[in-house]
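User: Hey, my collaborator sent me this sequence without any context and asked if I could get a structure. I don't really work with proteins. Can you help?
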Amino acid sequence: MTGSRKPLKMKRLVMWLALVSGFLVVAAFLTHQLSKPGVRPIQAAAQSSPKTFKELLAIPASDIGKHDIAVLNLLSAQGLPGSENINTEKCSATLDQWAARVKSETERHLYRFRNNPAEYENSEAYFRMLMMAVVVYEDFGVRYNPERLAPPPSRAANDHFFADSRDIFLHGLIGDRRMGTCSSMPVLYAALGRRLGYPLKLVTTKAHLFLRWEDGKERFDLEATGQGMDRYDDEHFKRFPFPVTEEEIQAEGYMKSLTAAEELAVFLSIRGMCLMETGRFGEAKDAFGAAAKLAPSCRTYGVMRDEMNQKISSSAIAHSPRSCGSVGFASC
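Assistant: No problem. I've predicted the 3D structure and written it out in structure-token form, which is a compact way to encode the shape of the chain:
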């Protein structure tokens, strides 16, 4: 009996060593993959992700960055015109699939950059963003809504740009429609890029939202609303789509990489604009107020909150019998 146990013990030892070796190989592979610039495993959604707009507002400002930017954006659209069929989990799963496709195509074509880096401004980061734009445009058919293509200076004040949430939030880009605007397209690229570990930031300028790659090694701005991906420096977005002064940059927080809280503030302000379009001034006031709390450095959020307050007060006065004379009615 004693002699028959030794081979068994030896067999177990060999199996154990094989398992340890397997784990070491996997660990080495993952370490190698994670060491590649701009490549990370696709992030899984946080288990504690908010499910409703109310839960979204309850997230402490310090914890906002722990949540998927796509979830924050989609929940900001809840209850708006055009958002009736939003399924946050399904949208997140679609983004995971799209990010996997972007990663696969980027790795497949990376030889193009290695063979001729000068063609891509000697920047692998820029090459990766170009590949993402190609996949999003050609493989997934994402487009800027042609009905919203008028250059900003020529837009009419009543063009209803914010009337349909599908034009200004993510669900319009990843559903059947696959159209959006500068309010949503940079968010799409940020959501995909962050799933791949790309250091992408959202940045605001006057009446516009754009992307920035910023990782300590490279920093460049990206316009993500066309058929490709155009690279610029900051000076471009100080002139486009409207010129901005240094005073405006300081007062509105333009041209800086936004924190997660400031990104959510942008989404809430867009929500406020959509609510204002439909005459829901009370809800619009709350949205602008929440944005102002998250991003006190942006003057416009507080201004819009106060403007909604004035509209609510004016509406209350107009419908109050006791105040008819004070607003010029001939009779009550």
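In plain terms: The radius of gyration is 25 Å. You can pass these tokens on to your collaborator as they are.
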